[in-house]
Amino acid sequence: MSFEKASAYLRKIGLEDRIIVPENSSATVELAAQAIGVKPGEIAKTLSFLTKEGPLLVLAEGTARVDNRKYKDTFHIKAKMIPGADVEEIVGHAPGGVCPFGIKEGIPVYMDESLRKYDVVYPAAGDDHSAVRLSVAELESAAGAIGWVDVCK
Questions:
Q1: Right CATH for 2-149 from 3.60.15.10, 3.90.960.10, 3.40.605.10, 2.40.10.270
Q2: pLDDT recorded at residue 1
Q3: Is the separation of the CB atoms in 92 and 6 below 8 Å?
Q4: Pairing mode, if any, of strands 54-61 and 19-20?
Q5: Are 47 and 149 contacting, i.e. CB atoms less than 8 angstroms apart?
Q6: What is the phi/psi pair of residue 40, to 5°?
Q7: Alpha carbon distance 142, 149 (integer Å)
Q8: Helix/strand/coil (H/E/C) assignment for every residue in the chain
Q9: Cα gap 27→35, rounded to integer Å
Q10: What is the dihedral angle through the alpha carbons of 116, 121, 26, 54, rounded to the nearest 10 degrees?
Q11: Which stretches in the chain have pLDDT values below 70?
Q12: Pairing state between β 19-20 and 131-132
């Protein structure tokens, strides 16, 4: 169901032809990089957080780690990831396929500065056997990102 939501969203904005469906799992950064034949950093992972206002997503390069101090300085709250068992209900996609495409309405999406070092990145497309080949600018637009942040090490 999540893949269908993400692909319908990408179809609506003219990017469905960028979807990749590898034979092997893309559930983690390492698996996704192996499955589509790219470096782990080129995977655009979607980090999901809970705040007082609700959930928010941060897209970051695959090997980036959240810097708690930077996160708190940016969002004025301690970084709290959405528990894995709750991600699908809150965001609309299950772990291993979380992406900014076809998510529940009203969830803000941010782009982390760590993505700027790449021309092309590969976020998931709703499930654990998918990716989407996009330039960073295309990802920013397709994700409806509301801005850039610097919250990773």
A1: 3.90.960.10
A2: 67
A3: no
A4: unpaired
A5: no
A6: -55, -35
A7: 17
A8: CHHHHHHHHHHHCCCHHHEECCCCCCCCHHHHHHHHCCCHHHEEEEEEEEECCEEEEEEEECCCCECHHHHHHHHCCCCCECCHHHHHHHHCCCCCCCCCCCCCCCCCEEEEHHHHHCCEEECCCCCCCCEECEEHHHHHHHHCCCEEECCEC
A9: 10
A10: 50
A11: 1
A12: antiparallel
Q: How many CA atoms lie within 13 A of 30 on its CB side?
A: 0
- How far apart (Å, rounded) are the C-alpha atoms in residues 103 and 87? 11
Exposure string (b/e) for 109-118, b if CB count within 10 Å is 16 or more?
bbbbebbeeb
- Can you read off the two tokens belonging to residue 129? 């056997």
pTM of the model: 0.95
